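Translate structure to sequence.
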């Protein structure tokens, strides 16, 4: 269940000097307050969407808002709303979403850079995530067992799974074939460009 809804918070209050209360006629007792209403999800504000103004009398404690606001207060209310900004924290949900998208883009560009570096200078133990064709969801692994620039010898994993990150499930020595075969740099580049080689992992950094 997703919990969402709307909420409001007081932003500012301004006195209206010299104005008589429409209820009790007391002067210098009127004040206008502006609130910010915002949508929230799990109580985290997503974005503000309206700024209701409330007129109050500090003498008789009456209040007016929306359609009940007397006509002569429409202009001061409009002016106060115009110069009142919703607090920045009413945007925090969208801020979090934007930060997550930014982080995702950064992480995937870092990953692509690491993949390119690993392919350019292969090491024994590098593991390539591969699939038959781009768009298919049957992934397997190739493990580098020898580097003889410009070729590498790899052993294929004997299993295929429907998961673009098969490393954790498939990377056990017993799951690899005993028979290796040779791939050269051009073949690896073509596989990468065709979306058949989707990831390179180097488990031991040294
Ligand atoms: Zn009053």
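Result:
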């Amino acid at each position: 269940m997703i919990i969402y809804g709307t909420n409001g918070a007081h932003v500012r209050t301004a006195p209206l000097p010299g104005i008589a209360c429409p209820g009790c006629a007391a002067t210098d007792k009127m004040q206008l307050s502006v609130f910010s209403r915002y949508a929230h999800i799990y109580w985290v504000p997503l974005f503000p969407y309206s700024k209701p103004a409330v007129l109050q009398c500090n003498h008789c404690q009456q209040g007016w808002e929306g359609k009940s606001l007397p006509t002569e207060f429409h202009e001061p209310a409009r002016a106060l709303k115009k110069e009142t900004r919703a607090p920045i924290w009413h945007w925090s949900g969208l801020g979090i979403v934007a930060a997550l998208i930014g982080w995702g883009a950064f992480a995937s560009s870092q990953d692509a850079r690491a993949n390119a570096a690993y392919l350019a200078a292969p090491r024994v133990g590098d593991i390539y995530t591969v699939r038959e064709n781009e768009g298919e969801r049957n992934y397997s692994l190739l493990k580098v067992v020898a580097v003889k620039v410009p070729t590498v010898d790899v052993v294929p994993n004997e299993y295929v799974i429907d998961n673009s990150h098969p490393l954790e499930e498939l990377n056990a020595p017993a799951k690899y074939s005993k028979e290796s075969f040779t791939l050269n740099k051009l073949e690896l580049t073509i596989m990468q460009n065709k979306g058949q080689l989707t990831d390179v992992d180097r488990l031991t950094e040294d």
